[in-house]
Amino acid sequence: MIHSIQSEWLKTRRSLASWLVVIGGLFIPLIFLYDRLRHFSTMAENNAKPGIWTYYFKQCWQYMSILLLPLGIILTVSLITQIEYRNNTWKQVHTTPQRLSTIFLAKLVVILTMLLQFFLIFNGGIWLIVALPSVFGTVDYPSAPIPLDTFGEFNHRFLVGSLPIVGLQYLLSLHFRNFMVPLGVGLAIFVATIIGLKWEYGYLIPYSYLSYFFMNNTQHLLDQGINIYYCALGYFAVFTGLAWLSYRYQRSKN
Amino acid sequence: MEHCIHTKGLNYFFSKKEQVLHDIHLHVPEGSIYGFLGPNGAGKTTTLRLLLGLLRQQSGDIHIFGQPFKPNRQSILGRIGSLIESPSLYSHLTARENLMIWQKVYQCPKNRIEAVLRLTGIADTGEKKTGQFSLGMKQRLGIAVALLHAPRLLILDEPTNGLDPGGIVEMRELLRQINQESGITIVISSHLLSEIEKLVTDVGIIHRGKMQFEGPLDELMRVRRSHSSLVIETGAPYKALALAQQTCGEARLINGKINLPHQDKTTIAALNHQFVMADIPVYQITGKEDDLESIFMQMTATTPTQNPLL
């Protein structure tokens, strides 16, 4: 299994998806960093505030969770999975001495690893917004400690909220040769999510959990006995299961 | 004889109405270079895909290295190198990076990467991405991928597609060298007999999903000899024709020359002697053999029951 994962990881080298993870992870933090540097005069004052870390953390996640992260996952998962279709390499992969389950899992592990990589880069980017000016000695490093518990909890929730998108995009990208299908369906569900958030049953839309987690307005759902954390995990399990069945019982291995 | 590949009763349906393979029996001898021939759409690629497990087996048996394929899929695939249709390459990576991907999967020594790059003559491609490779270079890299884990069996589907004549000759030399030096069994499919007749030791001919011929190349050569004819040019064709018909039975006059079926040397000498004795000037006696291409064309132009060669 480990060799299969290494092999899958090598395929992502210099790929568009790997660039997307790095650029997507740094995009919003760099905009905020630029904004801070533009207002250099207030930087020292801001750094002294106790809520400096949380402020930038929430600011960055606001744009990321609702808009960029779902789009990024739709694009990245499709690009990674479609590497084989694009290069006409499925037939070579399927004539190697690997179990189909190993191939399936190795690809999924690589996708999830890239998602983690994105989270690390994004959080690192948030740290840079606040810390970079201090590193160069222009202002003091914030005296307030980084609220690791809060950051960890939010990251954890966002990660879980991303999983249904990963699952469905993986299913679609494995099943359809045409790159436009997973991309088109993904974008359609994304748009439906934005519209459907106000709907009382909006929590049924599998791509909605990132927004729910960010808005932190899940209490009314919990009161109804609906835990969207488990909904997200459930969707991920169902989509991944369907992806496996679709892959396993494909008539031709291309 | 040991068979590297042995199939029995392979049938394959794309749909209920469309049967693409009919009762395919293949016997690929160990250590041979087996030419799998047939026109486009004959069923070559479907058969090879079945052998590699790329298509779900519907009926019949496949034995490779003496083992049934289905229950031993992984262990068998670990000893097979393949190139099906176009080479499978990651276009954003270099040749070495492409090979590293497969080296990880096959867990073969890293030095095999340089070895196969040198063997296939693409060791100096450096940092060039395979997406920028010429078709010939891609084919070479495809062969390198197939050879990376030192397989016992190489399955190549139309590996010379898109190659220029020089490339075809080089590919042939490379395959011959691999076969002779490493004893690898090679199955190579083609729709052009002339392209591989100088390379193969055994031949299987498929047409419309049915095997038309299978056996050593020598046997196909014997078929060719049995279909050879004798052409005699004389100064008195009609007189000579009468004599030839008396001696050999079947003789025809075509374009002023006498055409006879294949004759042994003694009969040819006796016939020539008769012509000389009858004062018929003999200008030329030539043997005319059907080339393998025309035999192949005859085999694939008719149904098996009509085929005079079977």
The string of secondary-structure elements of chain B, in order, is EEEHEEHEHHHEHEHEEHEHEEHEH
The overall pLDDT of chain B, averaged over residues, is 84
- The class by helix and strand makeup of chain A works out as mainly alpha
* Protein structure class of chain B: alpha/beta
Total beta strands of chain B: 14
End-to-end C-alpha gap of chain B: 23 Å
Topology as H/E string of chain A?
Answer: HHHHHHHHHHHH
In quaternary terms, these chains amount to heterodimer
Radius of gyration of chain A: 20 Å
Low-pLDDT runs of chain B: 303-310
Describe the structure.
The complex is a heterodimer of chains A (254) and B (310). By secondary structure, chain A is mostly helical. Chain A is built from twelve helices and no strands. In chain A, helix 2 (16-38) packs antiparallel against helix 4 (52-81), helix 4 (52-81) runs parallel beside helix 8 (148-175) and helix 8 (148-175) runs antiparallel to helix 10 (209-215). Chain A starts with a helix and ends in a 6-residue tail after the last helix. With 310 residues, chain B is α/β, with parallel strands linked by helices. Chain B has helices at 44-51, 73-77, 95-106, 111-119, 135-147, 165-182, 193-196, 217-226, 237-248, 265-277, 292-301, and strands spanning 3-13, 19-29, 33-37, 59-64, 67-68, 80-83, 153-157, 185-190, 202-207, 210-216, 229-234, 252-254, 257-261, 282-288. In chain B, the strands form three sheets. Chain B has a six-stranded mixed sheet with strand order 6-7-8-3-9-10, with helices on both faces. A four-stranded antiparallel sheet of chain B has the order 2-1-4-5, with helices on one face. A four-stranded antiparallel sheet of chain B has the order 12-13-11-14, covered by helices on one side. In chain B, a hairpin with a 5-residue loop joins strand 1 (3-13) and strand 2. The model of chain B is unreliable at 303-310 (pLDDT under 50). At the A-B interface, helix 1, helix 5 and helix 6 of A face helix 2 and helix 3 of B.
